[in-house]
Amino acid sequence: MHRLHGRTPTLLVVGDLMLDHYLWGACERISPEAPVQVVDIKNETTVLGGAGNVLSNLASLGAKVHVASVIGNDENGNALVEKLHTLGISHQSLVRQEGRKTSKKSRVMASHQQVVRFDAESKEPITAQSEAALLTHVQGLLDAADAVLLSDYGKGVLTPSFTQRLIALSNARGIPCLVDPKGKDYSKYRGATLITPNRAEAALATNISITDDASLLDAGMKLKNNLDLTYAIITLSEDGMAIFDQNVEKIPTVAREVYDVTGAGDTVLASLGFALACGMNITEAALFATSAAAVVVGKLGSATATLEEIIQYERSLATPSLHEKILTAQALKPLLSAYKEGTVIFTNGCFDILHAGHVRYLEKAKSFGNVLVVGLNSDASVKRLKGEKRPINPQEDRAFVLSGLNSVDYVVVFDEETPYRLIQELSPDILVKGADYEGKEVVGSDLVKDVRLVEFLEGRSTTQILKKAQQ
Description:
Layout lengths: L9 E6 L1 E14 L6 E14 H11 L2 E9 L2 H13 L6 E4 L5 E8 L2 E8 L7 H15 L4 E5 L8 H13 L4 E4 L13 E2 L3 H8 L6 H14 L4 E5 L5 E4 L3 E4 L12 H14 L4 H15 L10 H12 L3 H4 L3 H8 L7 E6 L6 H11 L4 E7 L1 H8 L8 H9 L6 E5 L5 H7 L3 E5 L15 E5 L7 H9 L1
Helix pairs in contact: 1-7, 3-4, 5-6, 7-8, 8-9
């Protein structure tokens, strides 16, 4: 069972609420009045947007959700309250400001493509009176919260003074405070637990052009250190996300199909908050968030992901296609960090002509834990070890055949004569070698918690197979 199954943390969302309005139709002609498409509207839908999409995502995950915000005393405000009621979320901590327009974004969609968007909203900062009322509501909700999520869409609710006060109140209670930021000046988020800008937003806020890993590290560390954050996270679209703690850790993307990225940032904020509120560490939370984002970008329009959908998606990743099992050490390392201590197994070899002895050996190795990583000697490495006539099969073929075994979870090709550097990088828990290493020093034994030796199947070896073939 997934460790988040049945968990119901309480999360407080504060930020810019809005309505996302969709007009769905088809286009079959151009207007005679102007060179524009004529869209024949077939359907109309309205969902919560902005910080409201964070609420929808949290509700889908099964969290208990509270919301505090400022909206207008208007028809759109009334519609927004109705949408909250549908989700079972109270509107008691919403402040109604006279003369303010509740944000509504309307999109015309023709054959699943967005044709135009038009907005009706107020973007000026909320009044001092509204800010004071909002702070009073927030203070009444904080004691029950496991995490606070600030969803800033730049519409004026999260003023600098209010945001700093809310972060201080959260910190005083030891409650994680996560921010999806907006704009160029991030000083109002100082002291938060973490912020989640995308690559372009981080570049704008730090004045660093993010073009490679070095500039990414500079930007992430600048955000973390200058804003006194516990972590900074920069989302990297198809490249996943980067976590900045003492060092940088990259979490690869897991999306297989992308239909619409609308609301993906809201999903990341919601799922990170949900996971941290349930006691996950930052790496585990980030991996969960990438799975949640992968689910929603596979849907059209501002979407949400249920915990069951995320679990199902993660299970599908646990049984990847054969090519997806063959990874570099850099790509594999963050995936292994999600496994519990004591469960990652490593072994290595040439595996030139796969035979029954290899299969039995790998099955036994896998039985010692949950995930088996096989380090595979490259062609150049095999030549140095076995001579110029080896390998018989190139490394691409050897890796592909290994990845077809149920016992093998991942294959990593290495070029050195020993896998020491690879073991050092992957940090497995258990190292497995053949029983012929009894009484000998096993390369990498100083890097792991345990070494297991496995008996070979008698009479089975690549050398014997080659001798028989030559005869």
